[in-house]
Amino acid sequence: MSSLVIKQQKSSLTPTSDKKPTKVLLSCPTSIDEVEITFDNPSRDQPNITDYTWQILKELLLKSCVKHAVITSTIRTSQSQAEAMYNNLKSGKNVSYKVGGNEVTKIYHDMAKAGKSQQQILAAMTELADNIITNGGEVSTHVNEYNTLFYNVLDISLSKLIKGDTGKKFTIEEESQVYNIFHNDSRIRKVHDPSHAKDPALHLEIPQPLAFNNSGIAALEKQKPFKPSAKLAIERARGLPLHSLKYASYPYIFYTPTK
């Protein structure tokens, strides 16, 4: 790092301390260039993060005194979503999902109770997830091929956040402070509270500028017709109820709210 700003954090009293808490010096990054963001799977996930989102992440991580953060997930296919859900459920992590996701979760519980194999359960979960998405429903906001264009969705590992130049991880209290910094930024549509046991990662949903550009959307639609999931991504980005947008013309999309 180049220059660093020194911040002070008060520690709590210990049984052997006197009446005054000790103070620990903490050096935080001073520019976004000093904030490092890496990926668990770079080839899969890095192309799904736009420059717009990257700038927001850097700014807010800098504000949070984060030296290093790891993005663990972005867009998922039906199969990779089913695998993620299976692994979470098997390890006892009951993550919150959309209505369609709850249906997929039920498949897991029913088939696991019936003694079915992992391969059989995953095949059934993937098939159901794919059917839900194909018919315009949602399993998870991660599962939408149009997220890169309109609505970036990503998870940042809380356990891998590195605090300033200490090389140490954040405490639960400090993780809550990071959450508040992201939650209070108007550019982010949704942040899952990390103190919620069902959501072990910092889950972020960030609307992209293109989602508000009707002429830009129409120009892309002329190049290649969109699938129904494109409309869902745009609705989420605009903060509208799902299925509240309609086609003003077809086959070229020019979205307007339904009356």
Describe the structure.
Helix content is 38%, strand content 19%. It is built from 9 helices and 11 strands. The chain has helices at 42-45, 51-63, 78-90, 99-113, 118-134, 147-150, 172-183, 214-223, 228-238, and strands at residues 5-10, 23-28, 36-39, 66-73, 151-156, 162-163, 168-169, 190-191, 202-207, 245-247, 255-257. Helix 3 packs across helix 5 (118-134) and helix 4 runs antiparallel to helix 5. The protein is globular, with a radius of gyration of 21 Å. The protein starts with a strand and ends with a strand.
Unreliable spans: 1-18
Order of helices and strands: EEEHHEHHHHEEEHEEHHEE
Q: Provide the residue-averaged pLDDT.
A: 84
Q: Tell me the overall shape.
A: globular
**Cα-based radius of gyration, to the nearest Å:** 21 Å
Q: Structural class, from secondary structure content? A: alpha+beta
Percent strand equals: 15-25%
Distance between the termini: 55 Å
How many β-strand runs?
Answer: 11
Please, how many helices? Answer: 9
Question: Topology, pairings included?
Answer:
Blueprint: E1 5-10, E2 23-28, E3 36-39, H1 42-45, H2 51-63, E4 66-73, H3 78-90, H4 99-113, H5 118-134, H6 147-150, E5 151-156, E6 162-163, E7 168-169, H7 172-183, E8 190-191, E9 202-207, H8 214-223, H9 228-238, E10 245-247, E11 255-257
Parallel strand pairs: 3-4
Antiparallel strand pairs: 1-2, 4-5, 4-6, 5-9, 6-7, 8-9, 10-11
Helix pairs in contact: 3-5, 4-5
